Every structure is written in structure tokens, then in C-alpha cells.
Amino acid sequence: MHRQVKTVKTTGFNLHERQSRRCMFFGSVFILALTLYLLFSPICLWAAPFAKYFQFTQPDGVQLTLWGEGDEFHAVFETTTGYTVVFDPIQKAYFYAQRAADGKSLISSGVLAHNTVPPGLTQHTRMDHDAVIAAARARQKQWDDEMGLSKRWSRLKSRTLGTPLAPDEVGALLAPPETTTIGSLRRQERRQSVRRPD
Questions:
Q1: Is residue 75 a contact partner of residue 124, using CB atoms and an 8 Å limit?
Q2: How far apart are CA 6 and CA 19, in angstroms?
Q3: Residues 64, 86: one domain?
Q4: How far apart are alpha carbons 112 and 66 in whole angstroms?
Q5: Residue 20 confidence class, pLDDT cut points 50, 70, 90
Q6: pLDDT tens digit sequence for 21-34
Q7: Which one of 126, 151, 173 terminates a domain?
Q8: Domain span including residue 55
Q9: What is the pLDDT of residue 17?
């Protein structure tokens, strides 16, 4: 007589396997979420932010301590007492700032930042929020145009992924050759040298 052996298949996982699979799942979700965040976060998050004190010597020799906060596309500078200042590139000096009438920029009050604060000037003067965003985007676009990073990135993606570039990304598009070229002379020479004698 033959004896029949019944095998019992377990459909469930043991506790250790379930925990392992759960860790792998959540780890994968975390890595995916982090990757998506980095890919789709605004470019201004990738700028080099700073918030620190700076020493500056005015043209008349006075040492000035300023608090600066921002990044390379938008920054605000204040005296240690909290009054906003702007730099005048012609006079190469910092002046107390006041808000322009339209609120879209900060302009010089005409008083050097180490002198007595002009009457009526308020602390922590800022531009309109929308104007700050527009100015930062304009500076970022100017920087990108000068550095050519977007164009270089498009070319790299095109080479890697095989997607065609738009004509303005490439410049002048060259026509393909009229005849098809297959192989090269060197390759043919190698084949001939490898052939076995008959």
C-alpha cells in the first residue's frame, strides 16, 4: 500500500517577513517622496540661503555692521537696530531705505546708514510680496540665461533620454547626411585581420 503524504502549504508570512516587507515598502515610499520633492520644489529652495552679520566699511571709513538675510536672487540688509538699508553702487555705500511709492522696490533715503535715522523712517521696511517674487524670478532667469544651465540640462537630457531638442535649444539644426554610412574603415580592417585563412 502506498502511503499518501499531505503537504500543507502556508499562505501567510511569518511575522518577521511581514515586518521586513513593511519596512521595504515604507522605505521605498519615503525615497520616492523625497525624490519627487527635490525634483518639483521651486528653484528658489535650491538657492544658497544665508542669514548672518556682515562688516562693511563705508567710503568715509566708518565700519558698519549689517544683518543680511536671503539668497543670491533676493536679500534684505538691515542695521543692527532694524532699519533696512540699500546699497548704492555709484557711491559704493549703504543708505537707509524707504519704500517706493508703488511698493515694488526699496529706494535710498539719501542718508548714509551710519548717520542718524531720518525722521518718519520705520524699521523692517519691505517691498510688496508679489514684487519680491517677481524680482527674484527675474534675477534667477537672468542668471540662468548668463550661465546657460537650462540649455545644457536640456541637451544632457536629450542625449540621455533620446528626446529631440527644440530648434532654439540647439541653435542651427544640421541636415542629416544624404547617404547612409555603415561601419568604418578601422572596423573593416579588424575583421580582415581576424578572418581565418581558408
A1: no
A2: 30
A3: yes
A4: 13
A5: confident
A6: 777 777 777 777 66
A7: 126
A8: 50-126
A9: 77
Question: 53, 84, 50: which is closest to 70 by C-alpha?
Answer: 50
Q: Is residue 87 part of a domain?
A: yes
97 three-state secondary structure: strand
Question: How does 27-36 read in b/e, with b if 16+ C-beta sit within 10 Å?
Answer: eeeeeeeeee
pLDDT at 86: 95
Looking at residues 13-22, what average pLDDT do you find?
71
For residue 56, what are the contacts with CB-CB under 8 A and spacing of at least 6? 63, 64, 65, 66, 94
What is the pLDDT averaged over residues 102-111? 91
Distance CA 22, CA 16 (A): 10
Give 81's contacts (C-beta < 8 A, 6+ positions apart): 117, 123
**Does a structural domain hold residue 101?**
yes
- pTM of this prediction? 0.54
DSSP run (H or E) holding 137: helix 129-147
Supply 122's cell numbers.
Answer: 520705520
Mean pLDDT score, 161-184: 57
Q: Is the pLDDT of residue 87 over 70?
A: yes
